[in-house]
Amino acid sequence: MDSLRNKLKSATMASHTKIEANPVLAKLTSPSLTPLEYKTILERYYGFFRPLEEKFLLNANHSTIPSFNQRLRTQRLKTDLEALGVSDAEIDALPICDRLPALDNESELLGVLYVMEGSNLGGMLISKHLKTLPFFSVESGTFFGDDPQAVSARWKSFIEHLESRSSSLDETATLNSASETFQKLDQWMERSVR
């Protein structure tokens, strides 16, 4: 029997490939990334993560997730934006995504978190590239530059939790919410820069 992790990987493969080709996000690994582009991308991420994480906190099942508060990234985005000179008032006025994936139950929560936790792993690769750019600083890179050992440990504990809960989940809802998360983020990043 295939693990839920493998089913999630298979179910989200097309959406994952599509978001990797997103022209806005592709700039993050470009040697010609400018400080303004970097700031704009962080602002877009903030507009997605802030309402999504607010929804996480309303889902009663979040309390069962190991190290849940350490998985939240909105504050890191705010810290990075402040380091780039964005004021609190400007951050509060940023556009916020209103088309979020469903988060009505544990099955959907774990599907969304699968994508968010996976993005932390990808963030380590992005961070390596960002560190080669002259404008980049540790102070403005906390969103992508988390401690690799901590990221790996959180990913491992999340996968263990996911598999331990798999028999009680609505598997279809978990798979759908993971795919939907990729799709909603992809749409938000593209729509935000038009």
Please summarize what this structure is.
Helices cover 66% and strands 0% of the residues.
Describe the structure.
The chain is 66% helix and 0% strand. The protein is built from 10 helices and no strands. The longest helix has 25 residues. The chain is globular, with a radius of gyration of 16 Å. α4 packs antiparallel against α6 and α8 packs across α10. The chain has a single domain, classed as Heme oxygenase-like (Heme Oxygenase, Chain A). The mean pLDDT is 91. With 194 residues, it is an all-alpha fold.
- Quote the average pLDDT: 91
Give the overall shape, derived from the CA principal axes. Answer: globular
Query: Would you identify the CATH architecture?
Result: Up-down Bundle
Strand-and-helix sequence, N→C? Answer: HHHHHHHHHH
Whole-angstrom Rg: 16 Å
DSSP E strands, number: 0
- Poorly predicted runs: none
Reported for the largest beta sheet, the result is: none
Q: What oligomeric arrangement do these chains adopt? A: single chain
The amount of helix comes to 55-70%
Number of helices: 10
Briefly note the structural class of the backbone.
mainly alpha
CATH class: Mainly Alpha
Total domain count: 1
